[in-house]
Specification:
The complex is a heterodimer. By secondary structure, chain A is of the alpha/beta class. Chain A folds into 2 domains: about 180 residues, P-loop containing nucleotide triphosphate hydrolases (Rossmann fold, 3-Layer(aba) Sandwich), CATH 3.40.50.300; about 150 residues, abc- transporter (atp binding component) like domain (Coagulation Factor XIII, Chain A, domain 1, Distorted Sandwich), CATH 2.70.50.60. Chain A is built from 9 helices and 18 strands. Chain A starts with a strand and ends in a 37-residue tail after the last strand. Chain B is mainly α. Chain B has one domain. Helix content of chain B is about 75%, strand content about 0%. In chain B, α6 packs across α7. The chains are: A alpha/beta, B mainly alpha. The interface between A and B is large, with 46 and 38 residues.
Chain lengths: ~425, ~280
């Protein structure tokens, strides 16, 4: 495995903040051109709207979307890039796809690259399905001959054969996405760069996409894949790059990197303290009581939430937790039951909720913390306080099944028993 | 296996080879623009005829009949010989300057040599031009005005017109990406330019009035040369051409084309960031 196909060395990308707002109109440029000599006379400042004389942006008005990123990818590797929003994942993909240029650094790529930063790029609503297949194919880098050869396959995959000669503006959104993905799926580059495209469409469609991605990955092609959906990263990738604030934080095997990433996401819940109405919420830590090190929660294992807060005055209050899905559907509310008359003295408190009997399915959840009295005044709301992940697979499903097939938020270990009630004899 | 190096400010040596490699995309984008242009219109491609025809009609009435300006050839033919290349030029300018902004979704998601986009909108204007040429053909039959051997020069003149449209087109495209003000400025340029290029009247008349010196200044507009050339080729013996200013037009067109490509290439790296 010495066949390096992508080599990234010390890559940085600087964006100038506010530039698009303040210097976008021609008027500003003309104004600046006219005013520039006067400004120089005044104080010798040669910066115009945050842009220096030589076109370099001064440091305080710009930020580094990528900051000295280096890594290597070998032939046939499927690499996942994870990280929080704004970590620089998309900027990295844009540079690798040659859409934008790096500020410094160097990338060397061996092989034909196709990038899929969006499904259906360049689809034209006025054109028919057939015409759009050719258009989109050409945009993605296929030759006309290639598209012709795969045309029937694409149509079959998209299941739109009846509507081939209908303008796509009359398509349902489902048909539109299917057709768009079908074209992309039949791309055969040596290196495939994919951004969060799997986040579109319904569960059925996502499953199809993931299936196709697995096929591509197993075909020995090099894939670079950005996603927030950790289960699919874990299932597809042989290597994971964790990016954090424009830097490469960690590169390694999926289990290890995703574990550490989730661990940090969890421990981040202690980062901020919230003050309101004389209450200070210092931290709420989600953890597995048996494991000392902060790592991800695993489905079906015991877990607890430990809330620390202080009261600046005597107050009648207690802690309430709410667990909800990312979409905001409440799964459960738990209260520390405080009836009227039970006043807490000013001081520091720690309340621990053992939630081992609340079993969550793998996925992302939100935790909200409130200080309030049951049926009484609400002193402090932190909604949501933190996002956390539960990892693992559901019982009875091994690695070959996608956890996406299963709906719901609950992790259940039912005892299942099947009895034969009657046997039907074959008709002679 | 091809090796690609991405670096800051790297003047890509293989840009022109890339442009060639992406020719299929160029054709398909041009085809898309042509197909889409008159979709869901009842008159369809007839619009390419109706618009210049109305202008030709009005100008013939005002300048030929009312003002009684002189022309050796039938006035309508003289006007249309100027109107057709001018319509091509102004359409190219308006379409290409909007092209990159209109294709923002492509620019921000896919790499390709950006020169393809404005160039493909010039193709659209060219197709419109070919359609509109029927006006000229009909007029010639109507007036029994037969072209001379000079018509052979038309393809070369068309090439000059394309070059004249591409140069300023590239500059305006790049500027529009950055400064949307040009969206408003361009229609104004187009409106004004029709007179500045002498579409409604014979440039020989202008030449006589202005004298050699000022006509030279007038001809700094490359489209003057293109239109003079078209009239020379179409009107045959009925049109004169002043070769020194025509030569000037060719030189200026090439200089503008060069500057246009240079400026476009210089700014296109930033398109995805500023669009």
């Amino acid at each position: 495995m010495t066949n390096t196909v992508i080599q990234v060395q010390d890559l940085s990308k600087r964006y100038v903040l506010g530039a698009s707002g303040s210097t976008d109109g021609l008027r500003h440029v003309i104004h600046d051109l006219v005013m520039a000599p006067f400004r120089r006379l005044k104080g010798g400042v040669n910066e115009v709207n945050g842009i220096g004389r030589n076109g370099e942006a001064p440091k305080e008005k710009s930020f580094l979307a990528l900051d000295g990123v280096s890594f290597e990818i070998q032939q046939g590797e499927v690499v996942g890039i994870i990280g929080r929003n704004g970590a620089g994942k998309s900027t990295l993909l844009k540079i690798l796809s040659r859409i934008t240029e790096p500020t410094t650094g160097r990338v060397q790529i061996r092989g034909r690259v196709a990038s899929l930063l969006e499904v259906g790029t360049g689809f034209h609503p006025e054109l028919t399905g057939r015409e759009n297949i050719f258009l989109n194919g050409a945009i993605l880098g296929m030759t006309r001959a290639e598209i012709k050869k795969k045309f029937d396959e694409i149509v079959a995959f998209a299941e739109v054969d009846k509507f081939l000669d209908t303008p796509v503006k009359r398509y349902s959104s489902g048909m539109y996405v299917r057709l768009a993905f079908a074209v992309a799926a039949h791309l055969e580059p040596e290196i495939l760069v994919v951004d969060e495209v799997l986040a579109v469409g319904d569960a059925q469609f996502q499953k199809k996409c993931l299936g196709k991605m697995t096929e591509v990955a197993q075909g020995g092609r090099t894939v670079l894949f950005v996603s927030h959906q950790l289960p699919s990263v874990r299932a597809l990738c042989s290597k994971v790059i964790w990016m954090d604030r424009g830097k490469v934080r960690q590169v390694g095997l999926p289990e290890k990197v995703i574990g550490d990433y989730l661990g940090e996401t969890l421990s981040l819940t202690q980062a901020e303290s919230i003050r309101k109405n004389g209450c200070v919420l210092e931290s709420a830590v989600i953890s597995d009581p048996k494991e000392s090190s902060a790592s991800a929660l695993e489905a079906g294992k015991p877990w607890q939430v430990c809330v620390r807060y202080s009261l600046e005055e005597d107050l009648q209050t207690g802690v309430t937790l709410r667990i909800s899905t990312i979409q905001g559907v409440v799964i459960v509310d738990v209260h520390e039951c405080i009836r009227g008359g039970n006043v807490r003295r000013a001081g520091k408190y720690e309340t621990t909720f053992d939630l081992s009997n609340v079993k969550l399915a793998p996925g992302s959840y939100l935790l909200s913390v409130n200080l309030m009295v049951h049926h009484g005044p609400l002193h402090l709301i932190a909604d949501p306080y933190a996002r956390f992940e539960v990892v693992g697979t559901l019982p009875g499903f091994n690695g070959t099944h996608w956890p996406y097939d299963i709906g719901g938020f609950l992790y259940a270990e039912p005892s299942v028993k099947t009895t034969a009630l009657e046997r039907f004899q074959p008709v002679v | 296996m091809q090796t690609l190096v991405i670096e800051a400010g790297r003047a890509e040596k293989n840009y022109w080879r890339d442009l060639f490699n992406y020719r299929e995309l160029f054709f398909i984008l041009a085809w898309r623009d042509v197909t889409v242009r008159y979709k869901q219109t009842t008159a369809g491609a007839a619009w390419a005829i109706i618009q210049p025809m109305m202008s030709i009609l009005i100008m013939t009435l005002i300048f030929g009949k009312l003002a009684g300006l002189h022309s050796a050839a039938p006035y309508a033919i003289m006007v249309s010989a100027g109107m057709l290349p001018w319509t091509f030029f102004s359409n190219s300018l308006s379409l290409s300057s909007q092209s990159v902004v209109n294709n923002a979704n492509l620019i921000s998601k896919i790499y390709f040599p950006r020169l393809i986009v404005p160039t493909s909108s010039v193709v659209v204007s060219f197709v419109d031009f070919l359609v509109a040429c029927t006006i000229l053909a009909v007029l010639m039959v109507w007036y029994h005005f037969w072209p001379t051997w000079r018509l052979v020069a038309l393809p070369a003149l068309m090439a000059l017109a394309i070059a004249a449209a591409l140069g300023p087109g590239f500059i305006l495209t790049a500027l529009t990406v950055r400064y949307r003000d040009f969206r408003i400025i361009i229609p104004f340029i187009v409106q004004f330019g029709i007179y500045a290029c002498g579409v409604p009247f014979d440039n020989n008349l202008v030449h006589k009035h202005l004298g050699d010196g000022w006509y030279f200044v007038y001809s700094l507009n490359p489209m003057v040369g293109v239109i003079d050339g078209f009239r020379w080729a179409i009107l045959g013996g009925a049109a004169g051409i002043y070769w020194p200013t025509f030569g000037l037009s060719i030189v200026l067109t090439l200089i503008l084309l060069y500057i246009g490509i240079r400026y476009f290439r210089k700014t296109e790296r930033l398109f995805a960031d500023v669009i």
